[in-house]
Amino acid sequence: MGRCPDCGTWGTVAEATVLTSLDGTRRSNAPTSAAVPMSAIDPDQTRHLPTGVSELDRVLGGGIVPGSVTLLAGEPGVGKSTLLLEVVHRWAETGRRALYVSGEESAGQIRMRAERTGCTHDEVYLAAESDVHTVLGHLDQVRPSLVIVDSVQTLSSTDTDGVAGGVTQVRAVTTALTGYAKSGPGVAMVLVGHVTKDGAIAGPRSLEHLVDVVLHFEGDRNSALRMVRGIKNRFGAADEVGCFVLHDNGIECVADPSGLFLDQRPEPVPGTAVTVTLDGKRPLIGEIQALIGTQEVPSPRRAVSGIDQSRAAMTAAVLDSRAGIRVGKHDVYLSTVGGMRLTDPSSDLAVALAMASAYADLCMPTSTVVIGEVGLAGDLRRVTGMERRLAEAARLGFTSAIVPPGTKTVPKGLRTLEVATIGQALKSMLSIAVRPVSKPPEVKPPARPDLKLIDSRPAHPDTGDNDWS
pTM for the whole thing? Predict the structure, then answer.
């Protein structure tokens, strides 16, 4: 039929396949590949290949899988390109070929950054392209085993409508690259993605469903610490965290980041408490600092940094109502060391004891950690991964821990003080707290009789005196 019977237009009727015919029989197509038993599939097809960057391999589950597609998202300037340049450099050092495709920068700019960070190698190929079909042509010519696309929002397809970075274009580009990785000769792809002002990955939600691994690259501009957090991983655990330090000459892995979150002081000071938090499966030591205003004010201020503000206000209210620590009318300032963010409820008890330490002007011993969740009734609740937290504390040299009751396994060399309420926690703190070291007397400079104060003010025009008061 060449003419539509409804509108009368010629050439608008399209042929479509009917899944179910009128007589009830079903239509089927011959499969392109036969189904095989699960035991007949070679497990080496999905083996992990290490990238050479230990912290990234930790998050990926051991390395990059050939034929997989990884999405790395982060804010502008956080260090995504620097990290991926380090990845392709380590990849090329093992004799494997890598291709770095940039739609944002020229090849000269990438070469200049590679020279600054020491990541130049002959097996690393560079291409500055913004058309996805041209990128696929580069893949056929270079034949790499690892491809970096920086970024997927800057590529576009001439076969799809819309502007580069739009929902339609991003979906089409990702589909084309994913299809090549799945059907090609074991090419692993890493796509760089942009984020919105709220921190979510820009583009359609289906972008995260198309790829195999989703990673978030996080970091504060005021701190050199960077973290790669796994959000989705089809080849390993999705709750791992990798730690890095970004500097002028590149990026370095931090295998033991707990030292970055502790303030190195020779003597303890009031208002500090150390806790152990779990970021994914990784235990991290963090220090909380508190400062209480000396005077009561009608509208007290609650300023926090690195701590959830609502939980900090709740903990202050529990101290005021259940423990008799009257901080409700005082200004309260809370902060973490090293830019650490504590969102785990297990840090509630450390926040409470840090405020109590600052209020009573007592020092918690530097060899004590505090772990526990505080309830509104003043009770303390157990948290997940307590054995792993205590093992990390014992490994770093801590000798005592204030924890809720119910801890079964305690590492050797660590003594636990089990408390059930916030009041018992304060009594335990008083039993081990010490007074702060007295400040040395202020030394005044010696008098200098040979120096005299010279008044440079002009004389008064009427009295002739330079004392204008």
Answer: 0.78
At 32-78, the pLDDT tens digits run 778 889 888 877 777 899 999 999 999 999 999 999 999 999 998 89
Report the candidate in 403, 398, 394, 332 with the shortest Cα–Cα distance to residue 365: 398
Q: Are residues 341 and 389 in the same domain?
A: yes
Q: What are phi and psi of 313, to 5 degrees?
A: -65, -35
394-416 average pLDDT score: 92
**CATH code (residue 312):** 3.30.230.10
Three-state DSSP string of the chain? CCECCCCCCECCCCCCCCCECCCCCECCCCCCCCCCCHHHCCHHHHCCECCCCHHHHHHHCCCECCCCEEEEEECCCCCHHHHHHHHHHHHHHCCCCEEEEECCCCHHHHHHHHHHHCCCCCCEEEEECCEHHHHHHHHHHHCCCEEEEECCCCCECCCCCCCCCCHHHHHHHHHHHHHHHHHCCCCEEEEEECECCCCCECCCCHHHHHCCEEEEEEECCCCCEEEEEEEEECCCCCCCEEEEEEECCEEEECCCHHHHHCCCCCCCCCCEEEEEEEECCEEEEEEEEEEECCCCCCCCCEEEECECHHHHHHHHHHHHHHCCCCCCCCCEEEEECCCCCECCHHHHHHHHHHHHHHHHCCECCCCEEECCEECCCCEEECCCCHHHHHHHHHHCCCCEEEECCCCCCCCCCCEEEECCEHHHHHHHHHHHCECCCCCCCCCCCCCCCCCCCCCCCCCCCCCCCCCCC
Instruction: Determine, yes or no, domain membership for 9.
Output: no
Number of domains in the chain: 2
Tell me the residue range of the domain where 188 lies.
45-255
- What CATH number is associated with residue 171? 3.40.50.300
Do 335 and 193 belong together in one domain?
Answer: no
Two structure tokens written together for 179: 């299809």
Where does a domain end: 255, 280, 312? 255
The residue among 211, 226, 255 that closes a domain is 255
Quick check: is 222 in a domain? yes
Query: Does residue 269 sit in the same domain as residue 240?
Result: no
**Residue 454 scores a pLDDT above 60:** no
What the block records as the tokens of 346 is 């297990």
